[in-house]
Amino acid sequence: MTVLASILIPTHDHASTLPLTVASALHQTVSDIEVVLIGDGVTPEVRAVAENLVASDGRVRFLDYPKGANHGEVYRDTAIRDASSDAIFYLCDDDLLMPDHVADLLELLKGHNFVQSKNGFFTTDGKVAPHPGDLSDPAAIAQHLRTDLVFSFVSLTGTAHSRQFYLDAAEPWTLTPAGIFPDIYQWRKLMRNPTFVGATSKRMTALQFPTSQAGRDTWTAQERLAEIEKWAILAATPEGQIRIDSLVAEGDRETLIRDQERLFDLELRLIELELWKRRRGQVLADRFTRFVYRLPVVNRALGRSR
Fold this sequence. Notes:
alpha/beta; Spore Coat Polysaccharide Biosynthesis Protein SpsA, Chain A; 7-stranded mixed sheet; 10 helices; 11 strands; elongated
């Protein structure tokens, strides 16, 4: 079998959600894939789950490494170098892929070397919070590369790149400096390469449920599983992508409305500031005039001796 895509799933302690994540990766319309579980000091529960997944499907491999520094980023470099395909995909162990995800991004990779699904995440109330941005837009890339702010519209889940581009760029996954997310740090390194050619899909085919959002970091493993299980069931249905497209469109509209409201509020504040400056300037001008007229030299010049 010729492997067309390698899906890398870094994992540490999400034993409850890992089976659903891997199932979504295997349930692609492109079946000639491999799923590589990158174990970073996994718990015994994750190891048991990973070994069962390997035994259940020959397309799954498990790299069982000891706990590395930070998030074990260096292990990702090893996995890429050992991958069986040129198309490297990424997926977090508590996220999901829609069935057309690999097919969509493989099509984009024909003319680009770094691509992503339309990006965003799901809130706990079932809405989509978009991360607007287009990898083919130089202005968006320039914004992403700024080091004076934390800005990113490119996540780990939903991103793919050419293995050859990664190797030629000579910017491997390494230990991430403190104060920055590993994926942002790595993507910036690749984006700086002069051969970078990016593209963003028109639809969302990667579903993200970040632990850091909406208090999920306080949830139990069963609560996390219950949320993701609901979306996994939807993703497996024929109308699943249509429903996701509808939620994304709704999220885009809500974001546009919020942005317009913020812009209107900003414009009002700028108008108020300008009016204040004018009023303040007039007050200062009046004070200065009175001060000048009190000067003896001015009084003499005007023939008004005190």
